């Protein structure tokens, strides 16, 4: 259980680019928030700051009650799903899903149980011993989802996770991620440039443009007052 709160958050890159300008945004506990906007508007930078993969230049970031500005990624209660899946090619599906848990010192028995539970949730029970190259795009994306799920984080972060999939699969995975959200009762922040994805998946949508947060509303409100 966690709320994510950005207070006057700024990101200035070393070359002087202000990618994110004083963003104030609260993602409520168990909310599905979509962050949308054109290429280069600062979506990925925002997500990476929440993940701890980029430093914050100014402002405060909270995950739950905890100010996490200086907390490293592995100590934040988050898991991230990437566009390119970021799977390890030499490892099986099971090993890919287990890897983060192994690093964190989970017992063999606990890892097995969590991996098998996650595999059931994403429908990969029969593919656990395969390597990524023997999987379809949709199956690879499910492994990436499974790898996030085994961690049981309070917050899931998605960086355009469906943009490498064909149209049909994209629609199917949208439904699957929405189902996951209900099933896991987690807080989710989902970055996309796809308006349809935003409108169909978000409890609320945050619209970013040129590093500035323009609007935060439900899909219905946005549809009537764009
Ligand atoms: P989006 O995810 O919406 O496409 P990004 O967050 O990737 O946008 O980028 C926001 C802005 O910051 C863009 O102008 C981009 O060129 C710039 N930017 C991104 N990463 C860096 C970096 N490492 N150094 C300098 N500028 C960057
Ligand atoms: P995972 O969290 O996927 O099980 P790790 O424990 O190695 O794998 O990840 C440590 C941190 O690094 C996590 O916060 C994760 O979000 C981040 N991370 C994992 N893969 C990548 C990647 N390909 N690029 C950038 N960051 C990554």
UniProtKB/TrEMBL annotation:
Residues 4-226 form the ABC transporter domain. It comes from the Bacteria. GO terms for cellular component: ATP-binding cassette (ABC) transporter complex, substrate-binding subunit-containing. GO terms for biological process: carbohydrate transport. Keywords: ATP-binding, Nucleotide-binding, Sugar transport, Transport. One of its GO terms (molecular function) is ATP hydrolysis activity. The keyword DNA repair does not apply. This is Multiple sugar transport system ATP-binding protein. It comes from Catalinimonas alkaloidigena. The chain holds residues 1 to 226 of 362 of the full protein.
């Amino acid at each position: 259980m966690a709320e994510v709160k950005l207070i006057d958050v700024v990101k200035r890159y070393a070359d002087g680019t202000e990618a994110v300008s004083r963003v104030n945004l609260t993602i409520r506990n168990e909310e599905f928030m979509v962050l949308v906007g054109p290429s280069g508007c600062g979506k990925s930078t925002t997500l990476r700051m929440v993940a701890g993969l980029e430093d914050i230049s100014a402002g405060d970031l909270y995950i739950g009650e905890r100010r996490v500005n200086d907390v490293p990624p592995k100590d934040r209660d988050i898991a991230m799903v990437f566009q390119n899946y970021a799977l390890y090619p030499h490892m099986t599906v099971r090993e890919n899903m287990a890897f983060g848990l192994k690093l964190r010192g989970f017992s063999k028995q606990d890892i097995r149980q969590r991996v098998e539970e996650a595999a059931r949730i994403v429908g990969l029970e029969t593919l656990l011993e395969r390597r990524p190259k023997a999987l379809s795009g949709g199956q690879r994306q499910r492994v990436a989802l499974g790898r996030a799920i085994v961690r049981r984080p309070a917050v899931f972060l998605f960086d355009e996770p469906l943009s490498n999939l064909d149209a049909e699969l994209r629609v199917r995975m949208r439904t699957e991620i929405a189902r996951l959200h209900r099933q896991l009762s987690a807080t989710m922040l989902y970055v996309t440039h796809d308006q349809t994805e935003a409108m169909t998946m978000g409890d609320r949508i945050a619209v970013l443009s040129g590093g500035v947060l323009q609007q935060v509303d439900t899909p219905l409100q946005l549809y009537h007052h764009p």
